[in-house]
Amino acid sequence: MAKNIDTKKQYDINVKDIIVAPFITEKSSYLAGDNKYVFLVTAKANKPEIKKAILNLYKVEPLSVNIVSVKGKTVRRGKVRGRKQDFRKAIVTLRKEDKIDLMQ
After folding, report:
1. Distance between CA 10 and CA 8 in Å, rounded?
2. What is the pLDDT of residue 88?
3. What does the pLDDT read at residue 87?
4. Domain 15-93 in CATH: superfamily?
5. Angle, alpha carbons 54-65-9 (nearest 5°)
6. pLDDT of the residue at 5
7. According to the model, what pLDDT value does residue 102 have?
8. First-last CA distance in the chain
9. 66 with 41: CB under 8 angstroms?
10. Where are the domains of the chain?
11. Helix or strand or coil: residue 20?
12. Which residues neighbour 28 within 8 Å (Cβ) at sequence distance 6 or greater?
């Protein structure tokens, strides 16, 4: 017996499913001076979804969103070789009058 599947059903996207965490490094703190903020995002997130998530989470509208996919580095511990995890980060540009407080 086959189940009825609603193909027109819209799925609500949770902000936590898109933005993992703020990505705070020395370089990202310099970018914050230019109103550019860096966030770790999930691998399948796209620019419009990230823009909506920033709007819902921080109540500011981004001017632009750039996405960077970072490949994990190869590491060794003695004879054992491994690899760090791949991740994706989003650089969000805001207007001059808008600010995000990442230290909340």
Report:
1. 6
2. 96
3. 95
4. RRM (RNA recognition motif) domain (3.30.70.330)
5. 60
6. 46
7. 76
8. 51
9. no
10. 15-93
11. strand
12. 37, 38
C-alpha to C-alpha distance for 35 and 97, rounded to whole angstroms: 9
pLDDT in tens, 14-51: 777 899 999 999 999 999 999 999 999 999 999 999 99
d(C-alpha 28, C-alpha 60), whole Å: 19
* Best CA proximity match to 66, nearest among 34, 32, 89: 89
How buried is residue 39: exposed, middle or buried, by Cβ count under 10 Å (0-12/13-18/19+)?
Answer: buried
Assigned token pair, 77 = 């511990």
- How far is the C-alpha of 24 from the C-alpha of 37, rounded, in Å? 9
CA distance 25 to 87: 15
Structural contact between residues 99 and 42, judged by C-beta atoms closer than 8 angstroms: no
Structure tokens at 9: 């059903």
CA angle 68, 73, 75 (to 5 degrees): 165
Q: In the structure encoding, which two tokens stand for residue 49, read together?
A: 């979804």
